[in-house]
Amino acid sequence: MPTVVNCPTCGTKVEWIEANKYRPFCSERCRQIDLGAWAEEKYVIPVANPLDDFDDEAPPTPDRKS
Ligand SMILES: [Zn+2]
């Protein structure tokens, strides 16, 4: 009796077996959706933080103060 997991994308029950190359996803489509979500998250976080870092490491230029 194989282990059964829920597809992280759609919640469908997936048998954790060698034959299922998309595990823990139920299909290639769900795997792609999840990878896409990850890629988006990774992309957003670095963009949000550098603004904070920028102030600490590089003081504002005199031109911008006036
Ligand atoms: Zn799925």
TrEMBL record:
GO terms for molecular function: DNA topoisomerase type II (double strand cut, ATP-hydrolyzing) inhibitor activity; zinc ion binding. Zn(2+) binds at C7, C10, C26, C30. InterPro entries: DNA_gyrase_inhibitor_YacG, Znf_NHR/GATA. Binds 1 zinc ion. Keywords: Metal-binding, Zinc. GO terms for biological process: regulation of DNA-templated transcription. Its cofactor is Zn(2+). The keyword Transcription regulation does not apply. The keyword Zinc applies. Coiled coil: none annotated. Transmembrane segments: none annotated. Inhibits all the catalytic activities of DNA gyrase by preventing its interaction with DNA. Acts by binding directly to the C-terminal domain of GyrB, which probably disrupts DNA binding by the gyrase. Belongs to the DNA gyrase inhibitor YacG family. Interacts with GyrB. This is DNA gyrase inhibitor YacG. The lineage of its organism: Bacteria, Pseudomonadati, Pseudomonadota, Betaproteobacteria, Burkholderiales.
